[in-house]
Amino acid sequence: MRKFLRFVVVLALLVAGGLYALTFVDLGRFKPQIEAAAQDATGRTLKIEGPLNIGFSLVPTVVTEKISFQNADWGTRPQMVTAEKLRLQLALLPLLTGNVDVREVTLEGADVYLETDRRGRGNWEFGEAGAQPAADESAGGGMSLAGVPQIEIRNLAIAYRDGQTGKVSDGSFEEVSLLDRAGGFHVVVEGIVTGSKVSFSADVEGDMQQATLSDASLTVAGTSIGGDLALDMRNRPKLTGALSGTAFDVTPFLSGGGEGKGGPVFSRDPLPLDALTVADADIDLTLGELRYGKVSLTSLKLPLKLTGGKLAAPLTAEYRGSPVKLAINADGGANRVNVDVNAANFDIGKLLADLDVSTMLNARADFGAKLAGGGKSMHAIASSLSGQTNLVIGKGTINSRALAIVSDDLVNVLIPNGESGETAQLTCAISRFDFQGGVGKATALALETNTLLTTGSGTVDLGKERVDLLFKPKPKKASLVSLAFPVRLSGPLTSPTAGLDRTGVVTGVATAVAGTALTGGIGALLPLMSTGSSVVSGGDCAAAAAAAKESSGGITGTIGGAAEGAAKGAGDVLEGIGKGLGGIFGN
């Protein structure tokens, strides 16, 4: 027995010594053949600048360093991929028969640069040189995941450049791994994308045509969503499943802030609508809370269906306890988008404050919109919008800055308990805009306080991103008539100006408006409004609705020199709204 043990020890030492000796074998003489094979397969140059040898292991392992792979000839940088070190672990028995079976791949310090040209062609497309033979459909199934090697990537930098816009998005990943687990793989991705920490994990089973992702979990900036998904690649790619989470924050994915005073609201960057034609999907998303900045939607449900490039996404949620419905339908082939929004009895003052737009209002509102547009960017869609928006705001208070559009002197009289000099009592506000070709015409616009009723008319041009509205105040007290005057609000959406409009002044004295009945009610004026909501059914908007319907006459009188400067307050309010929209729509 002692002799046998001695034999085993000697044999082990010989094997270890042989394996160690192999690490000194220089495989550099094979570099030209490897580089030539890559050139034949892809039409591009593969360079191996570092040593190429066999690592010290019981399993044959090829190690090489300082690798680079050429970019497309139209690319904006010379290399598509560079890496500090690559390790390939090979199965021993296939090598004895002259075959190569890669079992594990380890990549360190990789830098991957993906980009498209102006026609949308990717640098990962190799043309005829890299064309693959057609798959054998008679095989009756996809390649098993058992044939996929384990993959470990450390310190990966990846960037994507859009050839049409020149915009570059990048991320860095500490770990990307694909490790064996119970007949499948456990996938882990951890890194930073657009400045936010991102991690993803899932158990993958099946084959290359039908695979399932169990216990999938995506965490972004500390908020998570997870569930089970299935991917079917047999015909048209289709993703099905259900995802849920207690809370998810989309703020890291959305651009914030405008481009400064007078900057654009709607981005001209291409939208990925054509991506809707690539695959089908049937996914149910449920979230306890969805956050964007300070805005929080709760009890969110989104059954998302994508078939043949057509997307249907009817979302239901609550904002501060009030119901919100948003139905989005998009056609990726036609580049068309339809939006149907309905929100009842929601706190509009809190919403404006949550969006960091304004704190001027304390009231609840109903809102409805049916809009449709087409194009390849937010700007193109906004420029072609058709449809209608309706808004009703109920009783509350409004900051005097909004009433400075009338007159400093008049504000002082209109505000009850004038010691504070800050708020006035709001009775009702209504708005209807009819859109055609991106231009919205105000067919109903009125605001009523306990002592003042103001009507308006004009247009909002989303294509040119300009506003042109004329407001005509009508004091309910005859003694205040001489203090009122028409004001025009005009200019860019993000920085309009307000001032006296002498052309808007017509002769005659406005009479007080009080409780005028409107045939058909608000429903005739604002058809998207539900008569069952508390704001519309409250009955406080009859006078405002009647005035908005007629919207005739104006006010003459003495105009104070300080009034025009005071009117600028309204422009400041709309400027805040325009910049808030810029943050939501990508600029």
UniProtKB/TrEMBL annotation:
<dbReference type="GO" id="GO:0090313">
    <property type="term" value="P:regulation of protein targeting to membrane"/>
</dbReference>
<dbReference type="GO" id="GO:0005886">
    <property type="term" value="C:plasma membrane"/>
</dbReference>
<protein>
    <submittedName>
        <fullName>AsmA family protein</fullName>
    </submittedName>
</protein>
<feature type="domain" description="AsmA">
    <location>
        <begin position="266"/>
        <end position="399"/>
    </location>
</feature>
<dbReference type="Pfam" id="PF05170">
    <property type="entry name" value="AsmA"/>
</dbReference>
<dbReference type="InterPro" id="IPR007844">
    <property type="entry name" value="AsmA"/>
</dbReference>
<dbReference type="InterPro" id="IPR052894">
    <property type="entry name" value="AsmA-related"/>
</dbReference>
<feature type="domain" description="AsmA">
    <location>
        <begin position="8"/>
        <end position="137"/>
    </location>
</feature>
